[in-house]
Amino acid sequence: MLIELLLRHLARAGELRAGELAWRLGVALAVIEPTLNFLRGEKVVEVPRRGSFDADVAYALTDLGRLRAREAFEKCRYVGPAPVSLADYVRQVDRQSVKGLRIDRDKIRAALGDAVVSENLMSRLGSALNSGRSILMYGASGTGKTYLAERMVRTASGAIFVPHAVHVDGEIVQVFDPLVHQPIEEAGSASKLDRQAVGDRRWMKTRRPVVVTGGELTVDMLDLQFESHSRFYIAPPQMKANNGMMILDDLGRQRIPVRELLNRWIVPLDRNVDYMALHTGTKFRVPFDVTVVFSSNLAPSDIGDPAFLRRLGYKIHVGALDEAGYREVFRQACARAGLVYDEFAADFLIRVMHAENRLPLYATIPYDVLSKLRDRATFLGEQPRLDPDSLRWAWDLYFAPDEDLGGARSLDDLR
Q: Is the C or the N end of the chain the one with fewer CB within 10 Å?
């Protein structure tokens, strides 16, 4: 594997100093020196230029080396830091497990920020996060489940080490994803390398990862993705999220039945391990060290049977606000939309619009209504108004009452 990776790097770059080559592979020069010496003896690489020290010696492919490099590219097109072994990956994930995180009241308050959350709900969320187990947040649309989940990810603090790739039975699985993993330390300069200066750069020091998926998720996406052109594997989202958090938003809106999707995770949620398979037929086990947060408008009984629900560590209902909480959310929504807070406007929404429509005080409604008044005022070039007519206009735009269809209640009425 190391020989083929060296050949691909040299074929891509044309010529590389030994120090630069070690830097690109993420290992110390002493690790690749024996391999380079072997390749020189086999007439696969040559030394077009010598430097004043070992790291400055330049290497390039011979004609035979270019032939061998083409063969290496036909097997796999991965060109990056050397992968780590599966055993090393498993050990590292275990060392930095999410089960070692401790969330106290101050930390959950800081994570939630200005979100209006009751003490009871905050206590449940904090307890669930301390467990390291999966969490189901359920409730009607508009209660703010996604909003809360997005802030809960802030509790996934601390640094972990993520490998660029893992080597499994002759195949390479790419794990590091710049869209998921945020590096904490910038890489140094290859020009400063010598025998002692290079550490094990096969691992990236990153923030704890957070993966957010929604209706686009399918069962196939939860398995290794084999790139037929590049001929290496991409780790599935739950493997990228190891030692962090994965949020599955709008559970029940996926393109597959929710029970089929969740059945795929019965074993991982119960035993904290996941099973992967290569196209060669080789199966292997990887850690499932992820705090999974499911967010759904469905009732728990509509999501899974009792056997599955037992594997969900916490089931947390997110409901409507009380009046005091709703007024605070309305105040925040005014500030967010650039409007002057008006107590009468809050009274009108609560006493009239919510009462008329028999609609509970859901947290997402104030901003969704007020933002429409801001948008209209921008269009008209005037100051936004919070009078009853304007609020009713914005409310109707948001909820689209059936009366707008001339009394039609269904497609049959329109026909």
A: C
Q: Full-prediction pTM beyond 0.85?
A: no
The pLDDT profile of the chain, 415 residues, written as one tens digit per residue, is 999 999 999 999 989 988 899 999 999 888 899 999 999 999 999 988 776 666 788 999 999 999 999 999 999 999 999 999 999 999 999 999 988 788 888 888 888 888 899 889 999 999 988 887 889 999 998 898 888 888 887 887 788 999 999 999 999 999 999 999 999 875 444 444 443 444 689 999 999 999 988 777 888 899 999 988 889 999 999 999 999 999 988 877 766 777 777 788 888 988 899 999 999 889 999 999 999 998 888 888 888 778 778 878 889 999 999 999 999 999 999 999 999 999 999 999 999 999 999 999 999 999 999 999 999 999 999 888 899 999 999 999 998 766 544 443 443 443 4
Distance CA 258, CA 214 (A): 12
CA–CA distance, 201 with 178 (Å, rounded to integer):
16
Give which of 70, 155, 72, 42 is closest to 108, Cα–Cα.
Answer: 155
Q: Given CATH 3.10.50.30, say whether it is the number of domain 83-319.
A: no
**CATH tag for 323-405 (out of 1.10.10, 1.10.8, 2.60.120, 1.10.760):** 1.10.8
Q: What is the CATH number of domain 2-79?
A: 1.10.10.10
**How far apart, in whole angstroms, are the C-alpha atoms of residue 229 and residue 336?**
47
**Residue range(s) in the chain whose domain bears CATH number 1.10.10.10:** 2-79
Q: Tokens for 255?
A: 């393109």
